[in-house]
Design brief:
By secondary structure, the chain is α/β, with parallel strands linked by helices. The protein has seven helices and five strands; from the N terminus they run βββαβαβααααα. A hairpin with a 3-residue loop joins strand 1 and strand 2. The longest helix is centred in the last third of the chain and has 21 residues.
């Protein structure tokens, strides 16, 4: 079996590969996107034996969604989504220094899936219906960005306010006065 820990950030992934006894076989910083996934597949391919297949690859990552995770599941790897707080507590148990780094987290994730995967939850692949909902949602976010004038990805749009004007006061328990209408996207154009 081959164990992989993947500590992801906005623009890169720190990964580490270990064998069954915990010996580090490889580590790398991979770019986000298709290029990074291809490099990860190549790294795994170098260390899989001729008789092994991709179902012998066990991965730990701190998320259960996104195109990167879907690519790992589609490749046939067994992927475990691990809560970042679990990773932090595991790291504290194993290290006295308490220092955090992306490469150390990749190592911690690898150790977790190698030694304690019986306590972790594997990521389930999505159904066709949920994949269709994701496609519609992405299309909706793209339209929102186009209509509201945001430039860039929908994720970046969520981080920026639509306008810089202060918020209107709210009345009652988070409610607007009934006489006030909520502005529509059409009125903002």
């Amino acid at each position: 079996m081959l164990f992989v820990g993947d500590d992801w950030a906005e623009e890169h992934h720190d990964v580490e590969l270990q064998d069954e006894i915990g010996r580090r076989l490889a580590k790398a910083k991979l770019p986000e996107g298709t290029a990074g996934v291809l490099r990860l597949h190549a790294m795994i391919g170098e260390h899989l034996g001729g008789d092994d297949d991709v179902t012998q690859v066990v991965m730990g990552i701190e998320t259960d969604r996104g195109p990167w995770v879907q690519a790992l599941i589609a490749a046939g790897y067994l992927v475990y989504a691990i809560n970042p707080l679990q990773v932090a507590r595991y790291r504290e148990r194993r290290s006295a220094s308490g220092g955090k780094s992306d490469t150390a987290d990749a190592h911690t994730l690898t150790d977790m899936v190698r030694a304690d995967r019986h306590q972790l939850r594997p990521v389930a692949g999505d159904s066709q219906q949920s994949e269709a909902v994701k496609v519609v949602t992405r299309a909706h976010e793209t339209v929102f960005c186009a209509v509201s004038g945001h430039v860039g990805s929908p994720v970046a749009a969520r981080r920026r306010p639509v306008n810089e004007a202060p918020m209107e006061p709210l009345y009652g328990r988070g409610q607007r006065r009934r006489s006030q209408k909520v502005p529509s996207l059409a009125a903002q154009r």
